[in-house]
Amino acid sequence: DIQMTQSPSSLSASVGDSVTITCRASQDVTKYLAWFQQKPGKAPKSLIYDASRLQSGVPSKFSGSGSGTDFVLTISSLQPEDFATYYCQQYKSYPYTFGQGTKLEIK
Amino acid sequence: EVQLVESGGGLVQPGGSLRLSCAASGFTLSDHYMDWVRQVPGKGLEWVGRTTNRATSFATVYAASVKGRFTISRDVSENSLYLQMNSLKTEDTAIYYCARGFHSFDIWGQGTVVTVSS
User: Fold this and answer.
1) Is the peptide bond preceding residue B14 cis, with omega within 30 degrees of 0?
2) CB–CB of A98 and B46 under 8 A?
């Protein structure tokens, strides 16, 4: 199975800041990497697919980059609604696997 | 509006069975790959399994942790997806989500809670 490792596990930031979350795959997943946002008590929401493509309706403040084994999610100009947990996920091969999550908290 | 709504969760004893449903609206389920993902409350996400679309004969693939116990199926006329869960274990306790498998998982349901406990 492909292991996905996110860093950091938690992150504190202020409104208006920009933050980056990294995701590393234990094997090459080429471009097949997605990012999700999850708020407490809610289902995950898709943000990015194919490493850098924004899902429909997702604001451009979210951006993704990377390929192979190393990926980055960047969130610019943080607003209160952006504080949530973020997950990366590979869909290169079964079983699909997720990172452990990064909890973004307000400083 | 494109939407997925799960139902069927509940409390079941170890060794028991449960069938979850996922009703789709706003799109034709049979045109899409569909997945089940679960999450232990307060923990991370775990992919459970997938069924492909009509064009690829609704093939299924499962995570090792549920293979042989869980079965994914569809009712084309009802535009619904199902997850039949047999021989349930305490470690199957989780929120179960159905998701549309387009561009990874683009649409998710709200989830249904399954608790396996005596």
Assistant:
1) no
2) yes
Q: How many CA atoms lie within 13 A of A43 on its CB side?
A: 23
Which site among B105, B107, B108, B110 would you substitute to test the A interface, given the most A Cβ atoms closer than 10 Å to its Cβ? B105
Q: Looking at the complex, does the CB of residue A101 fall below 8 Å from at least one CB of chain B?
A: yes
* Type of residue at B29: L
Nearest to B117 by CA among B89, B96, B94, B95: B89
The percent of chain B in helix, strand and coil, each rounded to the nearest 5, is 10, 50, 45
* Nearest-Cα residue of chain B relative to residue A52: B103
User: How far is it, in rounded angstroms, from Cα B85 to Cα B5?
Assistant: 18
CB B9 within 8 A of CB B66: no
Using the predicted structure, report yes or no on whether residue B103 has a pLDDT greater than 90: no
Query: In this predicted model, what pLDDT tens digit does every residue of B8-55 receive, in sequence order?
Result: 999 999 999 999 999 999 999 999 999 999 999 999 999 999 999 999
Residues in chain A with CB shorter than 8 Å from the CB of B45 are 36, 44, 87, 89, 98, 101
Backbone angles phi, psi at B36, to 5 degrees: -115, 135
Looking at the DSSP assignment, which residues form a beta bridge with residue A55? Answer: none
| Three-state secondary structure call for residue A79 | coil
